[in-house]
Amino acid sequence: MTTQLLLRYDSFDQSAHESHAEDRANAGLTQLQMWREGTGTRWVLFGVNDAARVKAWVDKETGLGHGPSASHMLETA
Question: Nearest Cα to 30, choosing from 1, 5, 55?
Fold first, then answer.
């Protein structure tokens, strides 16, 4: 089974997103796709290498106040 993470950002800063690429990679995430909804919302799909590390990263980012508005850990069926 393949695990993926789908994140929604209601407020999105492309420069900040790009500057955190190394942190995401260290957490076991590989960006696969990004979609824009309206003028500010972004959806980003990542491949997940280690679900526990990714969950810890999402919790840390959310706790710091610049994490995603919503996160969904998904597995292919």
Answer: 5
Separation of alpha carbons 63 and 2, rounded Å = 27
Note whether 4 and 63 are within 8 A (CB).
Answer: no
- Backbone phi, psi, residue 69, to 5°: -75, -30
Mean pLDDT within 17-44:
95
pLDDT digits (tens, 9 = 90+) for 33-74: 999 998 889 999 999 999 999 999 999 998 888 789 999 999
Given this model, what pLDDT does residue 66 score?
A: 78
The structure tokens listed for 21 are: 């690429």
- Token pair for residue 74? 């998904």
d(CA 32, CA 65): 24
Q: What angle do CA 71, 4, 12 make, to 5 degrees?
A: 45
